[in-house]
Amino acid sequence: SPTLGEKALDVMILAGIVAFIIISIFMIAYYRLPGVIAVIALVLQVAGILLSMSLPQITLTLPGIAGIILSIGMGVDANVITAERIKEELRSGKTLIGALQNGFEKAFSAIFDGNVTVVILAVLLMIFGSGTMLSFGYSLIAGVVMNFLAGVLATRVMILSVSRFGGIFKNTFLYGDRRAAK
Question: What separation in angstroms does the CA of 141 have from each of 30, 73, 118?
Fold first, then answer.
């Protein structure tokens, strides 16, 4: 009945909010400043995906919601890969700006490859699928585009901008370098 669907939607929204809070806490606690910026990028990504779903009036089906969740997971993955690459560069002795630039460059190929394969899959689902698969494919493509805009481009701009402020933001400990904490 419609009331059952309404209750299911309420439960899914609550579960999504709780999951987002848990992921945010983990990202901030483990990755420090890149984690804070990743959370901001994820909020941008979610807002962009929801906006892209509402503009063409795509019906949001259960597979469509699954596509959104999958693309948010890909956004988290992109930020984790980038933060880990930055940590590796700092541990190898690079300067902060050098580590940030090299970290983003080294992470980009893995993020790009993963996202391109997902776009190919989503396009094939939209071509050969029907009904709910259209919603899934569209939400996946929208999520990948927003992942590139928010999770890759905006994150890079935010981290590089913050790192140039000076003061506490120059402390490599905030970017994952354990040596700077000593």
Answer: 29, 14, 8
